[in-house]
């Protein structure tokens, strides 16, 4: 059989077939299609993501030297489960990886080598994986269209244009690995090849959890003769020419070229090789060129919009990414029947992630800001409606309550809480660094009071590390610092602290009447 059996014919496939016969072709027909998946994850939580992949997919992961990325191999039929991972932001299928790529010192020669690389790459299997991924999304879109009576879709719009703040954070965080290294360039002009920076979202799909049996059937059917998403048939019955863009993320100070130049020249070679049409905004295929010092990875994007946006429909100025919330919750190893509290919940990203992934625990969320409490309540409602539309049987509620309260005077019994997980005010968009000097010690004292002595734990995120360290040093009798994970939040270097509650008894709340 032809090495590209099942793929719609496109101009430029002849070279790919020639390359297939040269030994880079997929295995014989009938052999299972495997994919090396690359995933961007919140920096600092690479090990957490690797643990989740091992636990849920049975695959070992390799953590990239480029922070914020992991790689693992799965059979293509596992794509629905890959999209259900809670700790990954964006997914791509790896075309090829070069661990020690030797760049020429001369700019023209280095760029010419990148152009020549396109013809040598084994594109066929990754393109099949991309096709299967697209058919999975197509099924999902159809299901959504049939489900018009569901009110959940109406909830998807953020209120009062509040998403803006979170979007600004987004663009800074989606490619964390690149940000942490030296020599990263700002997003540049829209040349024919593409631009550096976070993957653009078309906003049409959300790659969330719960791809069901029909999506799996679609994948197991393989790439059959029917036209695939992004390749609508023309009136003559031929597959339409695909539109593509190249996104280059470059980190390192030893390169003679910019990310835009690499994207432009590599993109020109891709266009020539496949006869695809370049389109920066309305593209079918996004080719990724990740360059980190001497490590080069070429991939094809499998997500249009980051998976971290799965739970939140009503955004606040500092909405935490769901993937980071998941990583924080995993750090404290929740056990069934644990009571988990987020005393400064904002839009509710942490408790909503917790209730979704750890439904045998009881989650309590609170905030002193009525607007935040309202947004969190709306996000919980959206999640309930989404669950209703998914399940034909009676939908389950979620073990989560939201309350407006004062963080320094919580209406909870002393020693009654097992776990506290919270994103503390950084003193940038909310509050101020000056206020944090009073707020942090007061928060840690009150958290120590409600937390169970000896077994209780807290996982707290903050960018105001100096203030946090000072507050913690004053409260060493109540909290012991365990692990620290350094993370990147919207371009800010922050830390996640795992604290263990000592056996020291906290002061009881005195009655005021």
From TrEMBL:
Q: Which GO terms describe its biological process?
A: tRNA methylation
Q: What is this protein called?
A: THUM3 protein
Compositionally biased tracts (Basic residues): 138-147
Recorded hits in CDD domains, A to Z, give: THUMP_AdoMetMT
Q: Which organism is it from?
A: Halcyon senegalensis
Q: Where is the composition biased (Acidic residues)?
A: 203-212
* PANTHER family documented for this protein: THUMP DOMAIN-CONTAINING, TRNA (GUANINE(6)-N2)-METHYLTRANSFERASE THUMP3
Whether tRNA processing counts among this entry's keywords is yes
Q: Which family does it belong to?
A: Belongs to the methyltransferase superfamily.
A GO CC term assigned to this protein in UniProt: tRNA methyltransferase complex
What subcellular locations does the record give? Cytoplasm
Query: Gene encoding this polypeptide?
Result: Thumpd3
UniProt domain THUMP: residue ranges? 183-302
Sorted alphabetically, the keyword list is: Cytoplasm, Methyltransferase, RNA-binding, Transferase, tRNA processing
Cite the Gene3D superfamilies for this sequence: 3.30.2130.30, Vaccinia Virus protein VP39 (3.40.50.150)
Main localization is cytoplasm
- Annotated Pfam families: THUMP, UPF0020
Q: Where is this region: Disordered?
A: 1-28, 138-237
